[in-house]
């Protein structure tokens, strides 16, 4: 029995010999998350229905949407960051921007990939910039905030498509201009409200400028969108 | 058996407990595999390797468990050629993953190295932007160049956005790739390429300037072009463009030339450096304006016109193009065809 006990205390002793070179301390790294997750949660989510899991995540995403639309100075968006919402918004925006006039003739309209690249690449640049300027926010928190704050612009895009159904005239352009400008201001304001606290107070302008540029490009892309005839 | 599972439940590995108890058959094997290598029999990592020689292990383990643990290496050596494939694959996957992770981590950790170059205040940036349009006539003493990258980087991104705007309004066609990629490539290519080229030249002629200073100087030098393009992409007057090109573009070029002059010694080196820089900078602005300008693009588009026959294009394009002289001559040209 003594022999059995010793061997079980080191259940991964053989692991380093089998597949992983010996200089890597694998044992410690693996053991931590398993023990922690069990003790922290107290209940297991493994045996719950998939529907509940999905609904819980969707509810979390939805509550964050509300935070963006009504930007109080709350830390919920920062504390429990996720990238599902940004992905959802990004895909929706890219899909709505599909099928433009320019797109059909291969004229360099906003293609799906382009929208994707602009959103993610832009967020990453802004995040790196804020880190370089001495911000205390973490990388993914910033990505999460910037992604969620596209929501007003996505809504504006949906409105624009509806307006464009009625035909493109000067009036419709004026309506679209107003809607896009309002949502652009909203996006910038909301993201600034969330991000500004983590920045040194004298440098807020430097952090806000790329955010402004980012949402401006997206908003301008939405404004110039024209559906194919 | 029962004593074994009791021992297990007292360990921090309680997460694995269920699996171990459920697989009754495996537990028997586990009891037999008392040497060090047996720990892998439930692990994913060594699974492939394990599958290959599990049978041999079960048979051979009885003898080996009495052996000294020091012979572990020998035992492995014996097994090595059997499980070599599995081990190699697992090892390689692990190494590749480790390399990727450490590369990404290093990149992120290295941000701290760049931080000093972004140490600016908004007022400093504003004053540097304004200074970039004011040439200083001080040639005898080296002028100060701030080694800072925030302003240049933001100016390059602004230029990218303006360029995108210009491309969109002019309806530029790019066969391979996207507008975004082209705009980013053009702006960053110019900034980095010309900076390194001028730095190389200044190294040849022994000018006192570092790469960082060059990047900062040329980056702030892009403020003039940004202004000019922002105006002229929206207001289409050729005269206005040439006036702005000479005035604002010229001022920002002169500023850079003055700085380079003050940091170079000798006539020929000065002529070489400043000539190359001003030529590149002024022609870059011209290129950006005319390459993505509405009227020129319209001309090229109409002349190429691959999709439609000439007659249809005349009927459709004449009303738009008769707005100016160029357009009129074009419509005449097309009318003659």
UniProtKB/TrEMBL annotation, chain A:
Membrane topology summary: Multi-pass membrane protein
Domain Yip1 intervals: 68-221
Protein's cellular compartments: Golgi apparatus membrane; Membrane
One Pfam family per UniProt: Yip1
Keywords: Membrane, Transmembrane, Transmembrane helix
GO biological process per UniProt: endoplasmic reticulum to Golgi vesicle-mediated transport
Keyword Transmembrane appears in the UniProt entry: yes
Domain of life: Eukaryota
Record's protein name: Protein YIPF
Origin species: Gouania willdenowi (Blunt-snouted clingfish)
Lineage: Eukaryota, Metazoa, Chordata, Craniata, Vertebrata
The encoding gene: yipf6
From TrEMBL, chain B:
Membrane topology: Multi-pass membrane protein
Residue spans of biased composition, Acidic residues class: 54-71
Region described as Disordered: spans on this chain: 1-74
Residues annotated as transmembrane: 149-167, 179-202, 214-233, 239-259, 271-290
One Gene Ontology term, aspect cellular component: plasma membrane
UniProt keyword annotation of Membrane present: yes
Family: Belongs to the YIP1 family.
PANTHER family linked: NATURAL KILLER CELL-SPECIFIC ANTIGEN KLIP1, PROTEIN YIPF3
Function of the protein: Involved in the maintenance of the Golgi structure. May play a role in hematopoiesis.
This protein's name: Protein YIPF3
Source organism per UniProt: Gouania willdenowi (Blunt-snouted clingfish)
Source organism phylogeny: Eukaryota, Metazoa, Chordata, Craniata, Vertebrata
Name of the encoding gene: yipf3
């Amino acid at each position: 029995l003594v022999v059995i006990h010793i061997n079980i205390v080191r259940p991964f002793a053989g692991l380093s010999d089998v597949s992983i070179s010996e200089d890597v301390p694998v044992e410690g790294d693996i053991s931590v998350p398993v023990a922690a997750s069990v003790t922290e949660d107290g209940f297991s989510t493994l045996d719950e229905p998939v529907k509940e899991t999905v609904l819980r995540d969707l509810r979390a995403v939805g509550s964050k949407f509300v935070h963006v639309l009504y930007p109080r100075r709350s830390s919920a968006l920062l504390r429990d960051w996720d990238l599902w919402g940004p992905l959802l918004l990004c895909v929706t925006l890219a899909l709505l921007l599909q099928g433009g006039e320019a797109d059909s003739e291969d004229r360099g309209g906003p293609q799906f990939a382009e929208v994707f690249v602009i959103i993610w690449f832009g967020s990453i640049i802004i995040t790196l910039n804020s880190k370089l300027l001495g911000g205390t926010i973490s990388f993914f928190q910033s990505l999460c905030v910037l992604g969620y704050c596209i929501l007003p612009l996505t809504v504006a895009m949906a409105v624009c498509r509806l307006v464009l159904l009625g035909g493109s005239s000067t009036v419709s352009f004026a309506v679209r201009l107003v809607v896009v400008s309002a949502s652009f201001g909203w996006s910038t304001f909301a993201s600034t409200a969330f991000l500004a606290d983590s920045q040194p107070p004298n440098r807020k302008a430097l952090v806000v400028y790329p955010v402004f540029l980012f949402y401006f490009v997206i908003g301008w892309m939405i404004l110039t969108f024209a559906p194919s005839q | 058996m029962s004593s074994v599972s009791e021992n297990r439940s007292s360990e921090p590995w309680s997460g694995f407990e269920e699996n171990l108890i459920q697989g009754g058959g495996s537990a028997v094997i586990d009891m037999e595999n008392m040497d060090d290598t047996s720990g892998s029999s439930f692990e994913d990592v060594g699974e492939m390797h394990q599958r290959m020689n599990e049978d041999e292990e079960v048979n051979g383990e009885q003898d080996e468990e009495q052996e000294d643990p020091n012979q572990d290496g020998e035992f492995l050596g014996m097994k090595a050629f059997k499980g070599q494939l599995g081990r190699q694959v697992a090892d390689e996957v692990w190494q590749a993953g480790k390399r990727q992770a450490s590369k990404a981590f290093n990149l992120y950790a290295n941000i701290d190295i760049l931080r000093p170059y972004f140490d600016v205040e908004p007022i400093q940036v504003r004053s540097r932007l304004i200074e970039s349009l004011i040439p200083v006539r001080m040639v005898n003493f080296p002028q100060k160049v701030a080694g800072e990258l925030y302003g240049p980087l933001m100016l390059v991104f602004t230029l990218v956005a303006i360029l995108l705007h210009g491309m969109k309004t002019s309806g530029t066609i790019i066969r391979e790739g996207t507008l975004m990629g082209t705009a980013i490539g053009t702006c960053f290519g110019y900034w980095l390429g010309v900076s390194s080229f001028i730095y190389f030249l200044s190294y040849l002629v022994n000018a006192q300037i570092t790469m960082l200073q060059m990047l900062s100087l040329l980056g702030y030098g892009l403020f003039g072009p940004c202004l000019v393009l922002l105006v002229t992409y929206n207001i289409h007057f050729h005269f206005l463009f040439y006036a702005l090109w000479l005035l604002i573009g010229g001022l920002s070029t002169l500023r850079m030339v003055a700085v380079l002059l003050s940091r170079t010694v000798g006539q020929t080196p000065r002529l070489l450096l400043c000539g190359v820089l001003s030529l590149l900078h002024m022609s870059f602005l011209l290129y950006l304006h005319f390459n993505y300008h509405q009227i020129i693009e319209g001309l090229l588009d109409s002349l190429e016109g691959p999709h439609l026959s000439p007659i249809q294009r005349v009927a459709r394009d004449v009303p738009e193009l008769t707005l100016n002289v160029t357009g009129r001559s074009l419509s005449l040209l097309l009318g003659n065809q």
